[in-house]
Write a structure and sequence with these properties.
- By secondary structure, this protein is an alpha/beta fold.
- The chain has two domains: 88 residues; 211 residues, Rossmann fold.
- 36% of the residues lie in helices and 14% in strands.
- The chain is built from 16 helices and eleven strands.
- The protein has a nine-stranded mixed beta sheet.
- Strand 3, helix 9 and strand 4 form a beta-alpha-beta unit.
- Helix 9 packs across helix 10 and helix 11 packs across helix 12.
- The longest helix has 18 residues.
- The radius of gyration is 25 Å and the shape is globular.
- The chain starts with 5 loop residues before the first helix and ends in a 10-residue tail after the last helix.
- About 4% of the residues have low confidence.
Amino acid sequence: MQFFSIFDLLLSKAENQGMDLNELYLFFRGRKIKKADIEGLKQTSYIPSDENFKEAIYDFLNMSELEIELAMGRIPLAYRSSYFENIKNIAALLEPEEIKKPDKSSTLHPYYENEYGQLYHGDCIEVMRSLPQECVDLVFADPPFNLNKAYDSGINDHLTMSQYINWTYQWLDECVRLLKPGGRIFVYNIPKWCTYIASYLAETLTFWAWIAVDMKFSLPIQNRLYPAHYGLLSFVKGRKANTFHNQRIPLQVCRHCGGELKDYGGYKNKMNVSGVNVSDVWTDIYPVRHKGDKNRKYNELSVKFMDRIIAMSTDEGDTVFDPFGGSGTTFAVAQLLKRKWIGCELGDCEIIKERLIHPESDLRQLQKKQEESEGLFPPKIVELRKKNGFWTCDDFQKFPEINKDEHKQISNPISLNLSFM
């Protein structure tokens, strides 16, 4: 295992020596290092600068500074020239890691399936290892954020830093393997973990976007900037994505007066009546809080959120994969948009099954979202703007010609044969 915090490295050494945490703290107390200082190493990757603290760490681990850096997966600057000059010798010393292959004799069976997809109940890594290589066009992953939240039995959201990142790299490897050339992966997480995920995916994929998704109703955290967004990372397998459908949204306006929140100066008459292009900052995604729209007691992704990602990145008939099914929003939206899907969930799969069998609520939400996204200003906003003396599209004689094919991709009303449900 690669270590991403000094604390995890100390903890691993203590466990190998049969020591508990109290004995670990006692060792450092004898070196005049406080328990709080040791606890402070849980979220840091660097070796402390205090000489006494450093020497205590070296002594406890029985490792040199270089050995510690290598255990953290790093090559110190002073050694990099020598490292690259000896690449062949180093490679000869390394044994390839044995990769666990799926047991062909024990075929996984879906918990639920219909004409669009298959839902598996189990660990996502085990499920992915049973799937063929390069079989999906889009991967969307919304893993637990390791914030010690309560989930269904079997889901641990309180791992050490090193455990969480190593586990993340494991399932990312499988996602990349499943992705077709030209396919795209989206990973949704907090900025802290996104930094590690982005760095890791950049080793095998091509960066496409880091989208900031506005976090609604968040609370301030002491000694930190006010957390106001989640990260949505996107990478492509290969040089260029096979599919991209530009998404347009209504102009952002004040909900009280209807005035636009961004000044477009003298370019108002040149704006596309279909709406403005979606940027890499999404402020119009709201959490699912209404009981009538929620399918489980935990956090749930909105239909609008998944509609944008799937419609942007796939065509009808493409296959979408989600390793963390949650409440099933990815699968519900995928089949409403006539995409195939594959997914798994370690927790309760019955709520996903019921949601897919009875898609009426999701269909209503998707149709409502499309109605609200028709054009630069929805009808209610047009009336509000007229009432308060703001311009509307009707005030200009000439408009840019709308790309009919693009408009059709974005806002073609949803029609789905529900007879299979």
